């Protein structure tokens, strides 16, 4: 790639290049056909923690597409690809992976910065084809129906060959006509409103093709062990949109661990503790001294072996998500988790040597009373008595989501949220660290998750003006 001449572009080019240099390749991906921009509309750090960013590239490159990854920073203007530092203007196909609602603002900003009208109705034939897929489109594809030329709903594994073949064509009209034949494509622009969702199976096992120290998983090789969740917590879209749940086969999984055993692994799943072959997997990990961390686990299902093995890697802290501040609230949230089960898990954590513990809670439901908050404080006192030296508590307001039993609830207003958080601040025992999620950002998440059609365009335009 030619180096940019002006200093601003050079700074951006170097910024991207440094991230590219930080990546150690596990295996090479190289395609020679059509160039496709795979965009994660957030920072490199967030993007590199997502297995999807690498795995989509892997699936499409297998069909010989030249897929290059992009990420987003507010100050970018050119947007260079990671692989070859090619400016995004040179790509005819832009494929966004829409993982978090708030990224809608970055998608819109990026289009605006590149002079591309937000609405498909105002775009011309010389503009790139905009395709948006990812977990957000799975629970509300209408958020981006007026922005995307095509919305992809579901998992790419289900149609990766057909999708790649469509993208590999040279002529824009041919590409679009072929995309419309794919069952998982929805397009308001072309009035294709029938679509089929499909959850891909995990064979071959999805894994990243690189590691980087900048990822939240720090140089760990990401491998997907399960997709979807067998549970149905009332606030969580994963439990309602990703069914039937798919798990990696134990033999395939062990074979992959064995092939790359000089690496540390980040095992990705909604909850590793629901993996049906967990005991056998842990035996293998223990016998082969494999180091790993997990994206999430249920405290009622942890056992001594799992926690011991996690601690060997780099887990200084044990993370627990009771979500509800009391038993009553957990029951309302369909969390299916008792205080006794949480305490038992915490005792095992102490037994294997954890000294720090982090809790995640959701507050702001209309059923909450002072009694529920008192139960939280009582519980935190109990945790300190177990001997944990550092207890961190993260508090988030409930964001009611479509496709869940909480879909028709309203989000708590800011004043009431502040009243409830003030109570927590004044009541938590000494030694407990509190972290409150920004109300503003969660409110944006709530608003975006409920947008439809051209409301989204109006919404992001208002955000640009703020
Ligand atoms: S909160 Fe966790 S356990 Fe509950 S449905 Fe979602 S992913 Fe599953």
From TrEMBL:
PANTHER family noted in UniProt: RADICAL SAM DOMAIN PROTEIN, SLL1084 PROTEIN
Transmembrane stretches, start-end: none
SUPFAM superfamilies, per database record: Radical SAM enzymes
Gene3D superfamilies the record matches: tm_1862 like domain (3.80.30.20)
A molecular function GO annotation: iron-sulfur cluster binding
PROSITE patterns, alphabetized: RADICAL_SAM
Name of the protein in question: Radical SAM superfamily enzyme YgiQ, UPF0313 family
SMART domains, alphabetized: Elp3
Domain Radical SAM core per the UniProt entry, residue ranges: 215-437
